[in-house]
TrEMBL record:
Protein's recorded name: Response regulator transcription factor
Annotated keywords: DNA-binding, Phosphoprotein, Transcription, Transcription regulation
4-aspartylphosphate modification, residue list: D106
Gene3D superfamilies per the UniProt record, alphabetical: 3.40.50.2300
Species: Kribbella ginsengisoli
InterPro entries: CheY-like_superfamily (IPR011006), NreC/VraR/RcsB-like_REC (IPR058245), Sig_transdc_resp-reg_C-effctor (IPR016032), Sig_transdc_resp-reg_receiver (IPR001789), Tscrpt_reg_LuxR_C (IPR000792), WalR-like (IPR039420)
UniProt domain HTH luxR-type: residue ranges: 195-260
Length: 264
């Protein structure tokens, strides 16, 4: 059985509401984290969950996990465990035939991996909310699952209450990450994109000049290196300082080196 993942047993998590209604505010709950209006269901209708239990399918390749999680969910008021799946292909079939509100999915599944199964479910049963519950917390797994269509990602080892909250959240149309994954997601979203160059506001030539400034070259040496007139280099530097909002060369060097420039 997949072991518990460290750092995912706290009660804080990150919720991102998906309602398109601009009137829906964002509130902070010390027990939950950042959450959109919880009254809005996956269909946008606040009455959708008023009269029926949440239908849930658990997909995991380990029988003891399916049984343990199934027992936890079956004992919770408002949840109805309608099926289990031991492979990715079974998970897809369950999504189509049982039409659960939430399908709890592990990443490492035989036959068809959890991410591939999630991608298929998003095509054939898009109304089924997939919640990843797994031991894998690397960036590649987390964001691959999100791109495949998973609405949540919680690590195994999370407190039972966190799992229950996550299921309720994705059924209500929110995206939710467990605590450890939330920190990783926020770092990813607030940092530079891997395919985006440092200082995208600069032109390629300005970045080239800044890179040489960061190596410690003066204007004349930069002009010689790039076969430019010294006055042209001076104009580039003026533009660089304005765009980076720095006043001195040392400030520009610090900004450039912190972004990984100046190593050449």
């Amino acid at each position: 059985m997949n072991g518990p993942a460290a750092g995912d047993g706290t009660s804080a998590d990150l919720r991102i509401g998906t309602s398109a209604d601009p009137r829906i505010g964002v509130s902070v709950d010390p027990q939950i984290g950042v959450s959109a209006d919880p009254r809005i269901g996956a269909s946008g209708d606040p009455r959708r969950r008023a009269s029926a239990d949440l239908r849930i399918v658990v997909a995991d390749d380990h029988g003891i996990v399916r049984e343990g999680l199934g027992a936890l969910l079956s004992a919770h008021a408002g949840f109805d465990l309608v099926g289990t799946a031991a492979t990715g292909a079974e998970a897809v079939r369950s999504a189509v035939t049982l039409r659960p509100d939430v399908l709890v999915m592990d990443i490492q599944m035989p036959d068809l991996g959890g991410i591939e199964a999630t991608r298929e479910i998003a095509k054939v049963a898009p109304e089924v909310a997939v919640l990843m519950l797994t031991m894998f917390d690397d960036d590649e797994s987390v964001f691959a699952a999100m791109r495949a269509g998973a609405r949540g990602y919680v690590l195994k080892g999370a407190a039972p209450d966190n799992v229950i909250r996550a299921i309720t959240a994705v059924a209500a149309g929110e995206a939710i990450f467990g605590p450890g994954v939330a920190r990783r997601a926020l770092a990813y979203l607030s940092g530079p994109r891997p395919d985006q160059p440092a200082f995208p506001e600069l032109t390629p030539r300005e970045r080239e000049v800044l890179d040489l400034i960061a190596t410690g070259l003066g204007n004349a040496a930069i002009a010689h290196r790039l076969s430019l007139a010294p006055a042209t280099v001076g104009n580039h530097i003026t533009n660089i300082f304005a765009k980076l909002q720095v006043a001195t060369r040392p400030e520009a060097i610090i900004r450039a080196r912190s972004a990984g420039l100046g190593d050449s």
